[in-house]
Write a structure and sequence with these properties.
The protein is an alpha+beta fold. It has 2 domains: about 10-65; about 95-305, no CATH class. It is about 35% helix and about 30% strand. It has helices at about 10-55, 60-65, 95-110, 130-140, 150-155, 170-175, 220-225, 230-240, and strands spanning about 70, 75, 115-125, 160-165, 195-200, 200-205, 210, 250-265, 270-290, 290-305. The strands form 2 sheets. Strands 3, 4, 5, 6, 7, 8, 9 and 10 form an 8-stranded antiparallel beta sheet that branches. A two-stranded antiparallel ribbon has the order 1-2. Strand 9 (about 270-290) and strand 10 (about 290-305) form a beta hairpin.
Amino acid sequence: MAKKEKIALTPEERLAKMDRTKEKRKIFGETFLKACALFLAVVFVYAATYVAFGEGRTVYQSIQTNTGTVSGGSVVSGGGSATAGSGTTAEVSDEAQQAADAINAATAAAANATYDWERHCVVADIDVGSATDTLNGIIQRVDPNANLNSVVGGFMGQGDKSNTYTPGADAAAVFSNDQYALKATSLQAADLQNLTVEGTKYTFTLPVAENPQKDGNTALSRLTNDFITLDEVSAGVSEALGALSFLLSVDGADVAFQDIEVTVELNESGQLTSLSYSYYMDVRSLELSVATGTGNGTVQATYSNFVY
């Protein structure tokens, strides 16, 4: 077979070939650097996990070892009990069951008694980034003295409030919002985490409630209706803006109610003498039609001075 004749390239063709070779090398170099960066990131994560949790152990396994067995999203250790926000339960103690039964019976009777109520709420760190000025402009077309913080804080119940409820009174009129009225609780034994019993005084925490509804499917909603839902946020924004509500809508929210601490005191007859709770509200994402915001708040409420 005759040897294939080599075709001579013109100076222009040689220059073009050199340019293509340089471009290929550049692309390869960039790809190689990205691959190296990804590899180093994986190595770093593995090394950090190795140092933190030990050889051959996953993060999940280490959490199980260090804090107890994870059950339904809550941690159960030392033969205790827990419940997830969805109501998933583990084994509970007789003491917790007796406490839940006593509290539920006492609040059912107390809800129809005369009592004093006070509530303290602080809403903070409302942040929607660069859209803050735009939203303030929309809000101040309705009320020149208002802004995003005051509107959001308003429908979350910001401020110090107190009143006295009497049987037969219109709860919405007494509390300005009937969600603040004392509720006949429906607590389950597994809701009462970290329970301490001192005679007829019960102190406990509730599990984190993720985006709860007022339907009794979370421990928080079995205790109180004093928390805000997406529908209520949407309605509050609409009411605050009035005729200009078409300018702003609420499309979604991701809120966690956590660090929920409760103290309940009964008298020797099993009647409620005091109930107080507090929680931290973490607004991880509030999706507005013009921006996505974040924020947080704290609530503390007390019911006392019952007259039956």
